[in-house]
Fold this protein.
Amino acid sequence: MKEQLTIQQMKNICVDLRKNILTMIYKAQSGHPGGSLSVAEFVTACYFRAMNIDPENPRWPDRDRFVLSKGHVCPAQYAALAMKGYFPMEVLDTLRKEGSILQGHPDMKKCPGIDISTGSLGQGLACGVGMALAAKMDGKRYRVFAALGDGECDEGEIWEACHTANKYQLDNLVVFVDYNNLQLDGTCDEIMPLGDLAAKFRTFGFDVYEIDGNDMEQMVAAMDLALAVKNGKPKCILGHTVKGKGVSYMENQCGWHGAAPNEQEYKQAMEELDRQYAAC
Amino acid sequence: MNEVKKATRDGFGEEIVLLGKENPDLVVLDVDIGKSCKTGAFRKELPEQYLNVGIAEQNGAGVAAGLATCGKIPFVVTYAAFGSMRMCEMIRQEICYPHLNVKFACSHGGVTPANDGASHQAIEDMGILRTIPNMTVIMPADYWAARKLVRAAAEFDGPVYLRFTRDAIPVFYDENAAFEIGKANWLREGKDVSLIANGDTVRLALQAADLLAGEGISAQVLDMHTIKPLDVEAVERCIRETGKIITVEDHNILNGLGSAVADVVAESGKAVLRRVGIQDQFGMSAPYERLLEMNGITAEHIVELARGLMG
């Protein structure tokens, strides 16, 4: 039985994750910091608490799967994989560079620990549904964790996949919606209002846990509950989050969707994040 | 030629049951046109290996990708028009890019959905799919070819697009016929002209060869069931042996078999080529044979073109 980390330890890991995300994007001078920062608590909760994985054996058939449907925030997943030991930390410096295993969007054939290649929005959830279905068909216990952006909920395929998750009673599927209310061209309300997203997922047959998605305590509580309840219903953690969370000048700024910080901005971000460590 | 007629979709429907019984990881994934695509027997006999995600093709392709990452061998079953176009980007991103072991078994290829009209006639599908890296594209010529090539696809590791006919077409192979993905079947030897066809038009090439023989013209006939990877060696042999090639297909003359063969012919600079196929126009509700005639996809037109090349 593995020892569980305290909430404080997980909060500190999440700060490390954010620093690694920003360092990667700063060194690459390319990438998507805003959404990578808003999804950090979910990624931390998956990789450092919930998921049953073996970094020494990334293709272990019975492992839990992680699907990054919003593939452009892969710096968050890459940082978690490196911190778990899937590959050396130095590899993070190769993000988006020629020959790197860390492609601009996740590539399952190049990077250990990536369970499905994503990048075109709206497509990941259906793949996650397929994985959860395979587990059910084979009588296996592995679970599937899927991170969705709010903006990609504009895509019809997301809702087609929800139908399928409901039909086949995939209670081994945990969907996280990173509801930061900002998409590329503006706010979700402005570009395509999502309405009552919690009610939508409930209507599609999900158990919904609506939380502050940047609050580690709430995240862990929701995750533990989602995994404990085996009632034939897929789970949705609807996380209200802040795009650019943790870096003052990036928070809630649409412009940081896909821009890299300069040297001065990077230094400031690291100083701000350093102040967010708490005593364990 | 044998007078027995069968649709190639029936060959798929029968062979997939045998394959499913042999391999518990083989899964059929329907999108609510299973009855028409002949998965009824599979659904009844192997319910544990059967999924139906409703009229949701994009999701169906994605679910298949997820299943494949977990060791399943999904056969996604739909019509050619929807399998190639409604699912296209999911096939590219989630299946071909990561080279996942997903098969697309698509009925109603070409103009065979005749009276359904243009919306259901897939004239672009093979061209679209052959431009996607890692994809293999196959159209069997008759019932037995369908059974053999479905089996070959199941045993092959990687994405495969299989295209079947709705309408019954003559059966000329038998159960002992051999098929290899990417290798053309030489149905007739000849020295004057090469007829390269696939799918439901191979029978027309055979008829044309018979007619040409009556005029003293000796025609080779090739069943190019796999248009990607194309059997380049076979085309090069045609270039060497006759230097005169006619392609025949129930597909737009743009991007299909004719274009694939044209790539090889053009680079050789040593043969002349004529293409028989859909004339870059949408179809309409009409009898199958009439739709072929409207596009010049007939044995008589092939003969006429062959004569022209002899001059």
Notes: Chain A is about 40% helix and 10% strand. The mean pLDDT of chain A is 97.
